[in-house]
Hints:
By secondary structure, this protein is an alpha+beta fold.
Amino acid sequence: MVLVTRRGKIVGFFVPATGTVVPLDIRREIFHAVTSAVRRMVRSRGLGEKAIIADFEETRKTRRRR
Length: 66
């Protein structure tokens, strides 16, 4: 697994698709760890579903203009 960083902060991870298959129990553990981390970040920033969707839509519009 490779951690992806941006300006010193972890923004994601990459699990190579080549080679051996990642066992289901490890995939589940990764999924639960990531979703728990996202849940904590969302709660700590006081974000709601509408705010997240609005931010996503604005970002998507900006990217399309490039």
